[in-house]
Structure formats: structure tokens, C-alpha cells
Amino acid sequence: MMEKEPLLEVEGLQKVYGGKKSFLMPGKKVTAVKDVNFHIGKGETFGLIGESGSGKTTVGRMILRLIEPTSGKILYNGRSLRDLSKKEMVKLRNEVQIVFQDSGSAFNPRQTIGEQIGAGLKRFGENKDDGYIQAQVLHMLERVGLRADFYHRYPHELSGGQRQRAGIARALILKPKFLVLDEPVSALDVSVKAQIINLLIDLQKEFELTYLFIAHNLDLVAYFCDRVAVLSKGEVIETSPTIELFRNPKHETTKKLLSSMLTLDGHLGEVYQKRAII
């Protein structure tokens, strides 16, 4: 299979947290992410997996500069994100967005869903006409499977799955090319998880999106991702195409992660067939 042109390249990424030193208590440095390297091709779904505390979310947030890296390079379309000013980074928000795990806390309880989805257009869009923005929001609500009346609802009036759909609509309203999906379905019921993942697959085809999928649910990774990197104690220990990783894991930590999949053999047979057809 031909490798796709890179959209995102991460080189030597590191994050070190350190307490302030004092005379009585010297500061202790903690390395959360150490020398992480990977690239994501245009149109690809790249999985980042690992145990809790492995550094997955930290990597995702450093890519978006919600957390500043200690060192390393982050290149988006060949452009260094670490060299961008805050103003330049704000402009890039049109192209790079995130869907959070906790859709409840991601929304302001005092604003309607429609207002919050349209906020990005109001701030960053070229056409700030209220009628235009409302029309775009209504179209996006329909695209993610929510009725028009959800525009006037408040976050607490939506179920978890409905809020996650609204979160996806908010991320897509600016027509980005790259989405960080940070455990986007981990808080949802099994049936709702499948609906959201299939929605993301459809949206990826329609809008030509590239995904970084951060997850610990390996069933979903097997179904959803083209390639996978395994993170352990802040380091990437293995990267390979999804099928290859699940068939022939090289690292002991990866083998332990895969062994936690109770439905491994039966499920992966379906995954192989799906990917062979694609």
C-alpha cells in the first residue's frame, strides 16, 4: 500500500513537568512524554493507544498547543506549529480542531447548543451575518443526525450521544482538515459508540478529513484506524498498520494490551475482511 503524503509530522516531542526549586525542597522533574515520533498521512485515521497515564492525551494537546511542548517538532503541512505566534495559531483553528471525551463539560450550560456550535464562525468566519451562521449551524446539526430544534436546546437537555454529535458539529463548522479525537466515545453506551464511530467514518469521506484517534478501546481501534502507535510511559514503543499490529505485535506491552481483548479472534476476522475490501 502506497504511503500517503504527510499532513502532520511529530519529531522528538517531549513534555517535562518540573516543580519550582526551593532551599528546603529541590524541584523534581517528571517526564510525561519522551522523544515521540510519528506522522499522519492526509485522509488517514491514525490511532494512538496505551494504558491510562501513558501520555496519549498530553501528545494530542501538545499538537494543538493547548499544552506547550518542552522540546521537539510539530509540522502541519510542512509548517512548524511551535514557531507560530498565538495570533497565527488562532487562524489555524479553522483547519485543526478537537473533539473532547467529556461532551458535558465541553459545553457552556448557560448557552444553547446552536449558539455554541456557531461561536467559531462568529469569531473566525469571514461571513458574520447572523442568518448565514444560523443556516450553517442547522445544516451541520442535520449532518450529524440532530434535528433543527436542537439548535435552541441547552446541553443538559441532550443525552451523552447527542452532546457528542453536537461536539462533532462544533468541531466541523469551520471546515477543518485535521481532527484530534480524544477518547470521543469512551463515556458512551456500546450501541451509541458504534453510531458515533460510523458517523465519523462517513464525515471523513465527505469532508476529506484526517484523524488522530486517541483511545484505549482496542476493538474500536481495530475497526476504525489505518495505522496505530502504542504509547508506554510516554514513549512510542511500536508503530505499524492496524492489521499487522493486531496479527503480529512485537513489544511485550503491546501483547499485554491485545490480550485484554476478549473478542480478539472473532472480531478481527471481520476487521480484516473490512479492510481488505477498502
TrEMBL record:
Single GO MF annotation: ATP binding
The UniProt record lists the keyword Transport: yes
SUPFAM superfamilies: P-loop containing nucleoside triphosphate hydrolases (SSF52540)
CDD domains, A to Z: ABC_NikE_OppD_transporters
A biological-process GO annotation: transmembrane transport
Keywords assigned: ATP-binding, Nucleotide-binding, Transport
Domain (ABC transporter) ranges: 8-258
UniProt similarity note: Belongs to the ABC transporter superfamily.
Name used for this protein in its record: Peptide/nickel transport system ATP-binding protein/oligopeptide transport system ATP-binding protein
Protein's organism: Bacillus benzoevorans
Lineage, uppermost ranks: Bacteria, Bacillati, Bacillota, Bacilli, Bacillales
